[in-house]
Amino acid sequence: MPKDPFKTRLEIAKNKLSKKNLYNKKDSSFSIGTAFKLSTELVSAVAVGTIIGFIFDKTFGTKPWFILIFFFVGVVAGISNVIKSAKNMQK
Amino acid sequence: MAANPMTQFNVYRIGPEIKVGAFDISFTNASLFMIISTLAILIIFNLGSKKNSLLPNKIQLLAELSYTFVSKMISDTAGLKAKPYFAFIFSLFMFVLFCNMFGMIPYTFTVTSHIIVTFVLATFIFIGVTVIGFIKHGFGYLKLFVPSGVPPVLLPLIVVIEIISYLSRPVSLSVRLFANMMAGHTMMKVFGGFVISLGIVGGWLPLSFSVALTGLEILVAFLQAYVFAILTCIYLNDALNLHH
């Protein structure tokens, strides 16, 4: 009687899987995720930056200054997010 | 139904009001639809994994296909190291997918069209990924905020920028799902309203639009669940394989 043919097949499949390349970034499923990432990435970084600035202003009582600084830092962070995602897509 | 396209997002209480301290934890229509989608997932996957026949029937095929789909997605984006987190990502994907899809049935409530629901999901992912990153790499995980090859003069600015872009992850994750679901459902309702107001003469054009939009919305419902899960994988990948 053969020793559980399913188990041997499972072993073979597992071996094949572990040999496969870890990063298969050319796969279309990967790039579609990053493509959808782009749209909100920019906006959310600006929002988070502004909120951080607002909190700093509230705690230190320096009304417009931190919000101004962190707004622009947020914009830069958003742009760098988008560039990062775009670079990931090109790989 | 009311003509206001936003009334479909109203949360109302079903049954008695339950209060714990200052928190209102009454059973609402949102909780009802979360329970319905969870039960649907449990039933489908219990039926699908009960028999394990070599020639699968339809439900088993559905369960196996979704298993391989998510499994492939994880190994493609986050590598084999992310395999232990399969259960989490699979349930996350299925929950979001079923909530989105149940929202496509007329007169139902779309749970994911509320930002608090998606934001809670995204926050749990964010905290979980951060904790995993610190467990795997210790304080070396903070290197994520310090890209290599940056001149020391710019370093404080870059670190602030990186921290903001890291903190923006849960926001972008939740806003994307919420905005897509809410915009789509509002648009469908608006076009449905046009059909009524233009009557039998001019109502055919918005009606055909509605049909097309329904198809598009089903695509969006699937795609947003997919994007939600795949971004979780990407964030997990950042935490597991630290290379910045």
Report what the structure shows.
- The complex is a heterodimer of chains A (about 90) and B (about 240).
- By secondary structure, chain A is mainly alpha-helical.
- Chain A has a domain at about 30-90.
- Chain A has helices at about 5-20, 30-60, 65-90.
- Chain B has about 240 residues and is mostly helical.
- Chain B has one domain (about 5-240).
- Helices cover about 70% and strands about 0% of the residues of chain B.
- Chain B contains six helices and two strands; from the N terminus they run ββαααααα.
- Chain B has helices at about 30-50, 60-75, 85-105, 115-135, 155-200, 205-240, and strands at about 20, 25.
- In chain B, strands 1-2 form a two-stranded antiparallel sheet.
- The termini of chain B are far apart.
- The interface of A and B includes residues 37 and 78 of A.
Characteristics:
heterodimer, A: 91 residues, mainly alpha, 3 helices, elongated, B: 244 residues, 68% helix
Itemize the secondary structure elements and their pairings.
The complex is a heterodimer of chains A (91) and B (244).
Chain A: H1 5-19, H2 28-60, H3 63-90
Helix pairs in contact in A: 2-3
Chain B: E1 19-20, E2 23-24, H1 29-48, H2 58-77, H3 86-103, H4 115-137, H5 155-202, H6 204-240
Antiparallel strand pairs in B: 1-2
Shape of chain A: elongated
Largest interface: A-B, 33 and 28 residues
Largest sheet properties of chain B: 2 strands, antiparallel
- Alpha plus pi helix count of chain B: 6
Radius of gyration of chain A: 24 Å
Q: Oligomerization state of this entry?
A: heterodimer
Stretches of chain B where pLDDT is under 50 for at least 5 consecutive residues are: none
Total strand count of chain B, please?
Answer: 2
